[in-house]
Structure formats: C-alpha cells, structure tokens
C-alpha cells in the first residue's frame, strides 16, 4: 500500500471520512487482505497509543499518591510520637495532674506558635513578596537557540537591559521574540507597566495569527509582572489557567507555587 | 486543602467507563487500595519500588477491563486489584528465578474464591510491549499521537499545544507518526506474531 492509501485508512480510523467514502473503504478492507492487514496494524497502533496515555496518567496519579502518603507518613509519625508522650504510664493521680498540666502548657505553646505564624504569614504575604519569591530570570540560551547574531539577543545575553529595550523600540520588524525580550528587560528594570504591555502584545498577536510563539513564556511572565505590579487579581486567572494546563511549559513551576499565599495576598488586596 | 472524592465500587466503574472523571477515579483507587496491595507485595519479598510498579500495572489492567465492559461486578474492586497484583508479582518472581519457597507460600495464600485473572495478566505483557514501542517513537510523535488519540484533542487544539504552523501540518505529522508506529509494530517479531494470532 502507498503512504497515501494508508492515510485514507487512518482517516477512516479517525472517523473523518463521510458517506460513500466510508462504505467504499469498508469494502476494500473486507476484500483486500493487504488493506485488512494494514487496517489491523493501524488499530493496534492506536490501541498502543491509548495504552501509553493511560499508563502515563496512572503514573502521574502514582507520583501524587506517593507525595501525599509521604506527607501522611510524616504526620502519622508525629501523631504517634505525641501519643507515646501522652500515653506514658502513670500510677498516681499527681502524675496524671502533672501530665495534664504539661499537656495544657504544650497545647498553649502550640497555639501561640500557630497564632504567631498565622499573623506573621498574614503580614508578610503580599503580591510584592510573592513576586520576589517566584521571579526568576529567563535564560535565553537554554530555550530557543537560533539567531545568536541578533543584536537584541546579544544585548539580552549580556544583561544590557537598556540596550535591549532601545533596540526593540527601534527595530524595523517587531517579532514575538523581540517583544518578549523587551518585556523581560523591562521586568529586570522594574518597569512593570511596560513589561505587561509587551507580554500582552505577544498574546494578542498569537490570538490574531493563530500562532503560539512565546505564548507560554508571555503568559507566565505576564502573571509575574502583575504580581510585581501588586495586582494579584490580574495574575490569578492566568496562574490558574497555567496550573490547569498540564502541557503548559510553566505548568510545573506554577504547580509549586503556594496558592494559599496567593489567595491570601488577593484577600488583602481586595480588602 | 483539596476535597477528596470517594466512590462506591459501582460509581467507580461508572466514572471509569464514562471517562469523564478518570483522573479522580485513579487517584481514589490509589488512596483506597494501594497501601493494602503494596504491603502484600512487600510481604512476599518485593521492594517498595516493586510494589509500586506492580500496583500501577494492576490499576492499568483494571481500567482497561472496565473500559472494555469486561469487569464483572461479582468480584469487588479491591479483590480484583489484589488478584491482578498478586499474579503479576508471582510472574515477576518466576522471571527472577528466585521463587523457591515464596511461590509455595504464595500459592497457599490464594483464596479459593479469587477471580481468574490469567487472561488479563497475559494482556498486560502484550500491552507493555506495545507501550515500549510508543516510547520508541520520538518525543514529538509521541506527544502528537497522545494528544489526538488519548486526550481526544482536535487538530486545532493540538496546534495550541505544539509549535506547528497550521492544522494541515499537524495532520500530516500525525499521519507520519502513526505509520511510523505501525512500522515499529511490524518490525517487532513478538508483537507481530501476536498480531497474526489475533487476525486468525
């Protein structure tokens, strides 16, 4: 069979053929042993892909479960230690009372520590502190390698942020890459409004052209820019979207973020 | 804190069959059944890694059986998973040629009413070989096929996730990748032989 004929079989397998074509192909598969064989191999290949997908999904659940049970084991050990402490044999009423007092004191200390931690957390968490915690620069060399002679890239690699911004502003043709590097340079120079407009420009261009060049990068750093701009309300939907999209380049990074802290900062901001 | 969803056996079967809550269902299976099964494997000489691997295989087999509508409700989910895991571990021990007494102990530990899972165990071996072939594809092929056939994404949606110019480019790439996979299957004598048997 020619590759084109195989492609028609694939279309039939994907149920993308219509009407007469389907009936004809059914007939071909029924009467031509070679076509039937190829058809069966294709079905097996699709089964294999589905199997690999399922295995990958179960594997992810396994990893999550291991992480969860690790946490549970730690907490169980702590509880068990606590039980051992409180269940120490006591023979006299005095000892029981003493233990009771000790437990009360321990509970009070724990309560004070917990309250202090909560107050400290509330006071210290802000969009600015979250930005400081989660911002890390973009390393050009490790991602898109082509075009090392590009002056904007050269300036970016040299961390010459002012030149990056100047070159991007005067560039004859504006590309997503130029916009992205200019946005990053603005972030480095704490010009958050400008950074936001560069990243938004990339997303708008991609939406309009149906492309995805620097889309993931722009989305992530747009959220980070909003945090820097002390506007968690704008950052949250973008971060939620990245967290929900397993295929997003920054999915893992966002998953590691503390959404509790982000929501706390959002609460403070909305007050 | 995330709310944990719980299922009865019947609800679990329904969730897996419909496929809408598959991820939650898998997480529930792990929370509910992994520890008991894993401790059995460890009891019979398996390491923690062995126990995890075997339970993962059991979960995949279970989902596969449910999706094909072959799960019979007379054995409950826990028994079925345990049975698959035990048999997998038994096979693994045999492979490692250090069965000895453990096999005998194992055989003695099998309850009379345990479901017959031999058919599913054979299927597991075949599936593993197929999975290895998919892993043998390049990353871009693997990804595009998974997005289309497992995640059921359209060409347009795939375009959003992968750096291709347009839907036609994605479609052509998918043709090539699937054909590449069939070549790998044909070139694998063990899988091709099984295929011949299925065709017969």
Molecular structure report:
The complex is a heterodimer of chains A (271) and B (200). The relative contact order of chain A is 0.06. Helix content of chain A is 77%, strand content 0%. Chain A is built from 13 helices and no strands. Chain A has 271 residues and is mainly α. Chain B folds into 2 domains: 9-116, Rna Polymerase Sigma Factor, Chain: A; 136-199. Chain B has helices spanning 9-18, 22-43, 48-67, 77-95, 100-109, 118-135, 139-150, 155-161, 167-187, 189-199. Chain B is an all-alpha fold and 200 residues long. Chain B is built from 10 helices and no strands. Chain B is 75% helix and 0% strand. Classes of the chains: A mainly alpha (271), B mainly alpha (200). At the A-B interface, helix 1 and helix 3 of A face helix 2, helix 3, helix 6, helix 7 and helix 8 of B.
Shape summary of chain B: globular
Oligomer: heterodimer
The Rg value of chain A, from CA coordinates, equals 29 Å
Low-confidence stretches of chain A are: 80-92, 142-147
Alpha-carbon distance between the two ends of chain B: 53 Å
CATH architecture of the largest domain in chain B: Orthogonal Bundle
Compressed to H and E, one letter per element, the order of chain B equals HHHHHHHHHH
CATH class of the largest domain in chain A: Mainly Alpha
For the largest interface, the chains and their residue counts are: A-B, 39 and 48 residues
What percent of the residues of chain A sit in helical stretches (DSSP H or I)?
over 70%
- Radius of gyration over C-alpha positions of chain B, nearest whole angstrom: 20 Å
Shape estimate of chain A: flat
- Proportion of helical residues of chain B: over 70%
Structural class of chain A: mainly alpha
CATH topology of the largest domain in chain A: Serine Threonine Protein Phosphatase 5, Tetratricopeptide repeat
- What is the helix/strand order of chain A? HHHHHHHHHHHHH
Weakly predicted, low-confidence segments of chain B = none
Number of domains of chain B: 2
Largest sheet of chain B: none
The number of distinct helices of chain A, counting runs of at least 4 residues, comes to 13
Mean pLDDT rating of chain A: 80
């Amino acid at each position: 069979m020619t590759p084109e004929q195989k492609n028609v079989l694939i279309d039939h397998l994907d149920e993308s053929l219509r009407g007469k074509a389907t009936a004809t192909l059914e007939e071909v598969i029924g009467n031509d042993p070679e076509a039937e064989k190829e058809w069966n191999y294709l079905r097996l290949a699709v089964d294999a892909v589905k199997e690999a997908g399922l295995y990958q999904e179960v594997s992810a659940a396994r990893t999550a479960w291991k992480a969860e049970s690790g946490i549970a084991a730690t907490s169980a050990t702590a509880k068990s230690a606590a039980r051992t402490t409180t269940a120490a044999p006591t023979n006299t009423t005095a000892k029981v009372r003493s233990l009771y007092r000790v437990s009360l004191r321990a509970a009070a200390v724990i309560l004070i520590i917990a309250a202090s931690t909560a107050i400290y957390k509330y006071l210290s968490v802000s969009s600015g502190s979250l930005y400081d915690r989660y911002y890390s620069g973009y390393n050009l060399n490790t991602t898109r390698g082509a075009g090392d002679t590009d002056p904007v890239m050269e300036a970016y690699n040299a961390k010459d942020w002012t030149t990056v911004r100047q070159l991007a502003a005067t560039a004859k043709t504006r590309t997503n890459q130029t916009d992205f590097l200019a946005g990053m340079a603005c972030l480095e120079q704490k010009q958050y409004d400008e950074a936001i407009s560069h990243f938004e420009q990339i997303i708008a261009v991609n939406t309009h052209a149906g492309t995805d060049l620097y889309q993931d990068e722009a989305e992530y750093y747009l959220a980070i820019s909003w945090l820097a701009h002390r506007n968690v309300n704008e950052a949250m939907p973008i971060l939620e979207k990245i967290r929900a999209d397993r295929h997003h380049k920054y999915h893992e990074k966002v998953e590691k973020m503390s959404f509790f802290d982000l929501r706390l900062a959002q609460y403070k901001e909305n007050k | 804190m995330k709310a944990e969803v719980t299922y009865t056996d019947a609800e679990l079967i329904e969730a897996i069959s419909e496929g809408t809550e598959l991820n939650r269902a898998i997480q529930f299976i792990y929370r509910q059944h992994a520890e008991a099964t894993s401790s059995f494997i460890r009891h019979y000489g398996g390491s923690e890694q062995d126990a995890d691997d075997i339970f993962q295989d059991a979960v995949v087999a279970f989902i596969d059986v449910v999706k094909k509508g072959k799960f019979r409700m007379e054995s409950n989910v826990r028994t079925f998973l345990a049975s698959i895991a035990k048999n997998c571990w038994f096979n693994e021990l045999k492979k490692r040629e250090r069965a000895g007494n453990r096999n005998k102990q194992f055989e003695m530990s099998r309850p009379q009413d345990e479901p017959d899972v031999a058919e599913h165990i054979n299927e597991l071996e075949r599936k593993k070989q197929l999975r290895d072939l998919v892993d043998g594809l390049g990353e871009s092929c693997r990804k595009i096929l998974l997005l289309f056939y497992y995640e059921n994404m359209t060409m347009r949606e795939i375009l959003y996730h992968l750096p291709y110019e347009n839907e036609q480019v994605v479609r052509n790439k998918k043709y090539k990748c699937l054909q590449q996979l069939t070549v790998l299957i044909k070139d694998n004598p063990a899988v091709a032989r099984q295929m011949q048997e299925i065709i017969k």
